[in-house]
Amino acid sequence: MAQVLLVEDDPTIRTALLRGLGERGHAVASAPTALAGLEHAVTHRPDIVVLDLGLPDLDGTTMLRMLRGTSQVPVIVATARDDEREIVAVLDAGADDYLVKPFSAAQLDARIRAVLRRGTGTAADTEVVVGGLRVDPRSRRASLDGTELDLTPREFDLLHHLAARADEVVSKRELLTEVWQLPYGGADKTVDVHLSWLRRKLGETAAQPRYLHAVRGVGVRISAPGS
After folding, report:
1. In which order are the strands placed within the sheet that holds 48-51?
2. I want to staple 103 with a disulfide (CB 3.0 to 4.6 A). Which of 90, 107, 171, 191 is the partner?
């Protein structure tokens, strides 16, 4: 059973999901606005947040960014918007999953369980060290040569996935599937953009790589300098 916070302004949808998730063993609280949802999340610390984007006071993406300033609680965005660019933007803002309406309580329950499984303690929670780079998924902190890196949630996820596969070539297809939870397609450009941002924070460029090495036509590999 999970403590679920449902941030949804439509009373019909809210009632149906409260009932459906409750029948599946979850303890569900709800909020009709972004500000009410933020207050509840900070005060009660739920296990997971289900967030609509079309809220009456703030856009859900804005609420997500505000929430990420204080909490790493898993967030599933549940909305009628299905534009790929918006999906990418929301995932980049820190969402853990994205569900397009209409959907059933059973579908949402399956997504909740899957997201929470990803957050349980496993070998994936072990700190990864590659040369002077240290990536700790438990604290979601990364440092380079003893200096902490200022990473966005998506940059951290990308760095951790690559570091956990050090010295292996990882394809863009895998990164989109495992880091962004997106199908491979036009959105692969977002991988290039995030790799560029990540290189900048690691103090390197594509032309003069230290850790991130592009393998043309295949993907990218992270390796310790000189290895």
Report:
1. 27-31, 3-7, 48-51, 75-79, 97-100
2. 107
pTM recorded for the entire structure: 0.61
Residue type, 222: I
pLDDT of residue 136: 92
What is the DSSP code string of 9-67? --HHHHHHHHHHHHHTT-EEEEESSHHHHHHHHHHH--SEEEE-S--SSS-HHHHHHHH
Confidence at residue 123, expressed as pLDDT on a 0 to 100 scale: 46
Burial class (CB in 10 A: 0-12, 13-18, 19+), 169: middle
Which among 43, 27, 47, 36 is positioned nearest to 8, based on CA atoms? 36
The answer to whether the CB of 92 falls within 8 A of the CB of 73 is: no
Looking at residue 121, its pLDDT comes to 47
Cross-strand bridge partners of residue 226: none
- List, in sequence order, every beta strand (DSSP E) within the chain: 3-7, 27-31, 48-51, 75-79, 97-100, 128-130, 133-136, 141-144, 147-148, 169-171, 212-215, 219-222
Positive or negative torsion for Cα 138, 140, 145, 146: negative
Please give the average per-residue pLDDT across 18-31, as a whole number: 94
- Note whether 92 and 50 are within 8 A (CB): no
pLDDT at residue 207, rounded to an integer? 92
Residues pairing with 76 in the sheet: 50, 97
